[in-house]
Amino acid sequence: MKLYRLSLELPDAMPSLPCLDHEAMLHEGISPHAAAYVEDFETGGLHEVVCVPARRRIEIDVVSTAGEHSVESHDLLVGQLKERFPGYQVVVNGPSWLRGDRRVARACRSQVPLRDVLVGADFENLERSLEQLRIVGALMEKQSRVASWSVRTVTGPMLAVAGVISYQVLGTLTSALGEPWVQGLQYCVVGSLGGLFLYLGLKAVHLTEMANRVWKRYSEYSLILKDRSRQRRRVTAQSTNDDGILKKSAN
After folding, report:
1. Which position among 6, 18, 111, 232 has the lowest Cβ density within 10 Å, counted as fewest Cβ atoms?
2. Across all residues in the chain, what is the average pLDDT?
């Protein structure tokens, strides 16, 4: 269960954590909500369902559970939610190409599947996989910094050189083509080069955004795993205590 600015009484066996995606945003224009990972027992699919009480809205996030459910399982969940909550608007949040949702999902799933984080029993292997995911996110962030600083370093000098060269070279064609055509070509050369560097800069920012989201996914998985480990130790301690009581009673 993930909570954003909400207080709910949850069972002791249900792990809870803050909604990292919205807690880390620059603005606070997000309505309080609760999100939960649910499993469809009929098909075995995993889904993330978000409830926004103030807006009477239920959202299904298919990005965080990519590859964990079938189309039939998704359609079944949507139908059940609409049937059981007729007063709520059921919305499906699909992947965004601009945010790189599919790439983030593939990067995370290649290191550790969500199902293993939620129900996997090999905690040692899960911790190793999470460490690999953390390293992937850190390397993506470093690569974005390299790209960003490269663009910042070469943009000014390259535009200046291109401007001087284009004006000097194309200026010699003024008598043959005419001044309006030459000026248009000069503007196109400088503008095209500026557009190229703008594109590279936006790609660097895009990679930074994806790296941050991979890092947030790693943080979320780590919190879930720590909570599960804590619950496991509690159950083990309770079982040991019960065994001791039974032995004393038998004696």
Report:
1. 232
2. 84
- The C-alpha atoms of residue 106 and residue 100 are separated, in whole angstroms, by 10
- The Cα–Cα gap between 189 and 182 comes to 11
Tell me the C-alpha to C-alpha distance, in Å, between residue 171 and each of 25, 157, 164, 167: 50, 21, 10, 5
Tell if the pTM clears 0.85, that is, is over it. Answer: no
Q: How far, rounded to the nearest angstrom, does the alpha carbon of residue 42 sit from its chain's CA centroid?
A: 28
pLDDT at 84: 93
Sign of CA dihedral 42, 48, 53, 55: negative
Neighbours of 150 (CB within 10 A): 14
Confidence band (pLDDT; 50, 70, 90) for 222? very high
Dist CA 58 CA 49 (whole Å): 7
Give the tokens for residue 94: 């699909």
CA distance 130 to 108: 9
- Domain map of the chain by residue range? 14-94, 123-231
Q: And the tokens for 245? A: 């009581």
Closest by alpha carbon to 76, among 66, 67, 84, 87? 84
